[in-house]
Amino acid sequence: MVQNAPHAALFLLVALVAPAASAIPDGLLPNGNFEETPAKSQLNGTRVMGRYAIPHWEISGFVEYIGPGQKQGDMILPVPEGAYAVRLGNEASIRQRLAVTRGARYSVTFSAARTCAQAEELNVTVAPESDILPIQTVYTSSGWDSYSWAFKARHSAVTLIVHNPGVTEDPACGPLLDAFAIKTLHPPALTKDNMLRNGDFEEGPYIFPDVPWWVLVPPLDEDDYSPLSPWMVLSTTKSVKYLDAAHYTVPHGAHAVELLSGVETALVQDVATVVGRPYRLEFSTGDAGDGCAGSLFVRAYAARGSVTVPHESQGKGAHKRGVLDFTAIANRTRVVFVSMAYTMKNDGTLCGPVLDDVSLVGLHSHAARRFLL
Question: Which CATH fold topology does 187-373 show?
Fold first, then answer.
């Protein structure tokens, strides 16, 4: 026993200094696509009976496990990723415990589809942060959309909760959920040639590489942390699309934003400015090459200035550059972008102009003098 004491002490020392469990990597959450199925003994038809029946998840309330060929009346319920999804009934929720890095920012991406209820919404929580995400507007012809939501980790382990706060006559009329993923966000730094952060939208939510659509960034309160931070989406119920170059035409880099729903949705960022100093705002706009054809208009606002950039889209991915010169009237200036038209594709889904490569610079010396003249 005495001879083993040094070995025991060494083991204890290693255990004490060993790093904590590593944070969850970017990508699909454990059983995030619900392909690990509950035991048959834990199912009553489609209803999940056990609180921990779905591997890696905990449920409460009326939760259904939706498989291949499952019907809602005469309609077959589609599943966007793999073969299975879940449905949350009235006041039902699903949750998962996550190992994270304390103080880090994360974005969660998941797919959702409404069923027989109309004005559906989801309450997404990682305590103490919580937001209601509206899902009543459908942006795909399949009925499934991918949503994003961001949070700051206050502890090294947090619980992601998605709750259906709706109350309908049929408890099985709740939304379908599938394909949960996570991504660590790295706050974009200022550069010497751009006063705006994340002007190229390269920092944003996780996009599934094998899903041929976008990720929606929903409207949030101005105090919340956005998946596109420091950009904010201001709207009542509408979102903007976050696109990647693998599936769409983007003007610059690997990502861009598509503005939807006309003036109902604004993309904004606040920036420090000097009163009386002239500035130049530049941006790229056009279409994503996704068949969004027609007259597209992006309007940019800053201080008392505004500019509208039209684009007659053929839906094939063309774009142009817009410029707005203005003089700051306060020590903080809100830069605002909106779409001035409501546009739909042939399948009836909303679309709009693409925004990318946004920059803001102060005008100095001869450039400022020319502007003031």
Answer: Jelly Rolls (2.60.120)
